[in-house]
From TrEMBL:
Cofactor: pyridoxal 5'-phosphate
Pfam families noted in UniProt: SKI (PF01202), THR4_C (PF24857), Thr_synth_N (PF14821)
Homology family: Belongs to the threonine synthase family.
Residues with PTM N6-(pyridoxal phosphate)lysine: K351
Name of the gene: THNSL1
Protein name: Threonine synthase-like 1
Length: 748
């Protein structure tokens, strides 16, 4: 390893690049300001001077019939400020004629120009402004308004708008005489509303103008209060002195850093946001993308990622790269069991649902002056999903973000291993380790906590380390969406009415997927029981039944379901922290004991609290194969081994008094040998490629995964690095990657 250089120039570079990483320099290290954090500081500078509105305008935007004028008047009364209706107070006074007359006189295109010019010649401050439905279609006027205003999008369900317009005079809507239906016209306009808003108010069906006005005021207050949504470590110890400042992080910082400096995981300081019943019902008919936008906007402060930008990221993440337009469809299997298909992404596993979005969140949050190396431990599917996700970034972002995935060299299915190795690209590499997943995950945590090494990388190569495992909040958060979406789909398909409970059964190893379901319940999804399904590595099942987490006498078993071949479950710490009322001192004691003594026991009161929501059981290898065989025979549906484990446990543990949603976490093609053994197909010694093609000819459900079939066509053999199970060897390889990827760019 190169010597740690201490020259003043490199000190300055390190101080710019480091966040939580403390470098041993003569001066105290300074925390960097990401571009979003810098924006938050700028906003805070004027928010601290003015009241709720101050010199800024509250600008209400939305389609015709959204209630902008009525809501604007109510807000004006509450705040005691001027209310301006663009139609009545600007356009008609400027033109000396009604808006409908002007539209008939000049036509649609000229009207938009005339309307835009009138707005450009207008200025106001400290007012409530109700826009016309067509104002957002004129860029220059919207930029003019945005300079001194907070644009609030009144997002009213489309069917509600259509119903309202039938009762109104609609002779002044631009484009209404073009032959396009009102529904299509409103759909077309949504792209403009999404482009300009700073914050969205989701107006559920039946909400009164007064309720909407209160929501607007709450949204504006949240937008202005940039310090309101912060994150703490699960191992944070609350100060006895209430006056003492709590060391918190913003969302952008939590995403960049991945792991807290004390070894804990980042969690929201306050409770998860909640949606009311009306808001949830309004999402029943929404698409997956629309649901994701609504839910994630409530969880990510616009000072970290502006709402409109977040919407763009979500649309990019869940686009043509998914083989099913529903993204995460729910399929009725039999009786009260439903399959949540989470394998329609480009790499065929549930990891795609977060890792197609997380790289865009990460790239937005990081400062432009630093390079980042993402370190990932994978037990199967995460590796290829991370490599695929980060490969889809734009060219500039790929030049400053690199990815290294560490996987157990002999612990994956042949297809999974070939997929990870074959997913290597210009900014991503796969590294096999002669050990198991737990060693890979523990080694990465140790690397993050080695301040000498992380400081060295920052100074020598301008490189900061981060993670993309579910220990990273930016990776875990998007998973909440598909659990909520699954429930809404059951309502939409008529299997249940909203408010009826469901159970969820999830094959569980690292506890991230099932924890996301817990967060979905916190937001208002009526989940009754969380059923934790384990394979022969059933440490989590034993813990849920006894409260004793014990890996002292356990040896990791290799199974047909490698993604849950895990003994140290990282995200369990987040859930215990939630159950224990954010007792960081307890988390330190428990997980330090797990590290040092390989076990811990929680108190009886916590065991009882855990068992109120959780039940658990495990499944043998034979039972797993038998479930694949019997399910195919009875329904023509092929389960992958992880899903089969969940089905076995659901059959055993669920009381059938409500529906159970079984998470199908991977496409069966990735485990062709196990599937062929379960289905008693003799041609079992074929190559993995021919096995996948053979299974695809069975005309079973779910249909073949085209991206996985395409992968089998790639005949070229890609090389990959293999390391011994030594954390120092892994550190040397990380340094080598940083040197090769960034040293030339860093010196420019």
């Amino acid at each position: 390893m190169l010597h740690f250089k201490r020259c003043q120039l490199l000190k300055q570079i390190a101080q710019k690049c480091l966040s939580r990483i403390h470098v041993k320099t003569d001066k105290h290290p300074q925390l960097f300001l990401s571009r979003t954090f810098a924006l938050a500081e700028l906003r805070k500078s004027w928010h601290s001077i003015y009241s709720l509105v101050g010199d800024k305008n509250i600008i209400l935007m939305g389609p015709p019939g959204a209630g902008k004028t009525t809501v604007g008047r109510i807000i004006g009364q509450k705040l005691g400020c001027c209310v301006i209706d663009v139609d009545d107070d600007i356009l008609e006074k400027t033109w000396n004629m009604s808006v409908s007359e002007k539209l008939q006189d000049v036509g649609n295109e000229q009207f938009l120009e005339e309307e835009g010019k009138a707005v450009l010649n207008f200025s106001a401050s400290g007012s409530v402004i109700s826009l016309t439905g067509s104002n957002p279609m004129h860029d220059a006027s919207m930029w003019h308004l945005k300079k001194n205003g907070i644009i609030v999008y009144l997002d009213v369900p489309l069917l509600d708008i259509v119903s309202r317009l039938k009762l109104m005079k609609t002779d002044r809507i631009v484009g209404q005489n073009s032959g396009t239906s009102m529904k299509d016209l409103l759909k077309f306009r949504r792209q403009y509303y999404k482009k300009w808003y700073d914050t969205r108010v989701f107006c559920e069906s039946g909400a009164s103008p007064e309720e909407v006005a209160n929501k607007v005021l709450s949204a504006v207050k949240r937008y202005q209060d940039v310090d309101s949504e912060t994150f703490i470590s699960t191992r944070h110890i609350w100060p006895k002195d209430c006056e003492q400042k709590i060391p918190t992080k913003f969302f952008s910082e939590a995403v960049i850093e991945g792991l807290a400096s004390d070894g804990g995981l980042f969690v929201p300081e306050k409770e998860f946001p909640k949606l009311n019943c009306g808001e949830w019902k309004s999402l029943v008919g929404a698409t997956y993308i629309e649901r994701a936008q609504i839910l994630l906007e409530k969880c990510i402060h616009p000072a970290d990622i502006p709402a409109a930008k977040l919407g763009e990221m979500i649309e990019t993440a869940y686009g043509e790269n998914f083989t099913c337009s529903k993204i995460a469809p729910v399929r009725h299997l039999s009786g009260n069991q439903f399959i949540l298909e989470l394998f329609h992404g480009p790499t065929g596993s549930f990891k795609d649902l977060s890792l197609q979005l997380m790289p865009h969140l990460f790239a937005h949050c990081i400062p432009p002056s630093c390079n980042f190396m993402i370190l990932v431990a994978t037990s199967g599917d995460t590796g290829s999903a991370v490599l695929n996700g980060f490969s889809r970034l734009n060219k500039n972002d790929k030049q400053r973000i690199a990815v290294a995935t560490f996987f157990p060299e002999d612990g994956l299915s042949d297809f999974q291993k070939a997929q990870i190795i074959g997913s290597q690209n210009e900014n991503g590499w796969a590294v096999g380790v002669k050990s198991d997943f737990d060693f890979c995950q523990t080694s990465i945590k140790r690397i993050f906590q080695d301040s000498d090494f992380t400081g060295f990388l920052a100074v020598e190569y301008g490189t900061v380390l981060s993670s993309a495992n579910s220990i990273n909040w930016g990776r875990l958060l998007p998973q909440v969406v598909y659990h909520a979406s699954a429930y809404l789909d059951l309502v939409s398909q008529g299997f249940i009415s909203f408010g009826s409970p469901v159970d969820v059964c999830i094959p569980t190893g690292n506890f991230g997927n099932i924890l996301a379901a817990v967060y979905a319940k916190t937001m208002g999804v009526p989940i009754r029981k969380f059923i934790c399904a384990s394979n022969e590595n059933h440490v989590l099942t034993d813990f849920i039944k006894t409260g004793h987490y014990d890996i002292r006498e356990r040896k990791l078993a290799r199974t047909f379901s490698p993604a849950i071949d895990i003994l140290k479950s990282s995200n369990l710490e987040r859930h215990l922290h939630l159950m224990a009322n954010k007792d960081g001192q307890l988390m330190r004691r428990l997980f330090n004991q797990l590290e040092e003594e390989h076990h811990f026991q929680i108190e009886k009161i916590l065991v009882e609290k855990l068992q109120q929501d959780f039940v658990a059981d495990w499944c043998s290898e034979g039972e797993c194969l038998a479930a694949i065989h019997s399910t195919y025979n009875t329904s023509g549906y092929i389960l992958d081994p992880h899903t089969a484990i969940a089905k076995v446990v659901a059959d055993r543990m669920q009381d059938r008094t409500c529906p159970v949603i079984v998470s199908s976490t991977a496409h069966y093609s990735k485990f062709a040998p196990a599937i062929m053994q379960a289905l008693k197909i003799r041609e079992i010694n074929q190559t993995s490629s021919s096995q996948v093609y053979l299974l695809s000819s069975y005309n079973a459900l779910p249909p073949p995964h085209e991206a996985l079939l395409e992968r089998t066509k790639q005949q070229e053999k890609m090389e990959h690095q293999v390391c011994v199970a030594d954390v120092n060897v892994l550190k040397n390889y990380v340094e080598k990657l940083a040197q090769n990827q960034f040293v030339g760019k860093f010196s420019e």
